[in-house]
Amino acid sequence: MAKKSDNDSVTIAKKLGIFLLTFYVVYYLMSVIMVGAFGVPWTELGKYPFLTEMDVFNPAGAGGALGTWLAMVITYLSTLALAFIVIKQTKRTWDYVATTTLIHFVICCLVNLAFPTNWIWWVTLLLAAILVSLASEFVIYYLIEMRDIEMDH
């Protein structure tokens, strides 16, 4: 259940800050693991591959592209647990996931100074955001909001 203070702007901003910071910590940790796992150069670390063509960035081709793709997918999957720990509200989970996805998109555009052109990146980003948003709502609803209420007599 939501507390009265959960709707305050300051509380929302703090939770969003924690959510975003943890999102990027997990993203770069996954990038480091994928760089080591696939033996690609360190220049691939945290690379935003949305400008590269399909034949260069193709997760089916293994190597750096697969590692980068997996880092993004695993990061979004971990946000399911992050939503459970940080947000704890069914009605707010999609807000946090959508805001994080939008901020991630803006950061990617600023870092690359370009607009994304790779359709794999778009499909992965949008599907991950939608699926994590829906899954986190169900998880929080069933594991937090539907708990038995104990009453003292």
Give a structural overview.
The chain is mainly alpha-helical. The chain has one domain (4-151). The protein is 69% helix and 0% strand. It has 4 helices and no strands. It has helices at residues 9-38, 63-87, 90-112, 119-145. 25% of the residues are buried. Its main location: membrane.
Number of strands: 0
Give the radius of gyration: 18 Å
Structural class designation: mainly alpha
Instruction: Give the biggest sheet.
Output: none
Number of helices: 4
- State which percent range the strand residues make up: under 5%
Order of helices and strands: HHHH
Total of domains: 1
Percent of residues in helices: 55-70%
Q: Mean of residue pLDDT?
A: 80
Short description:
Helix content is 69%, strand content 0%.
Describe how the helices and strands are arranged.
Blueprint: H1 9-38, H2 63-87, H3 90-112, H4 119-145
Descriptive keywords:
153 residues; elongated; single chain; mainly alpha; 4 helices
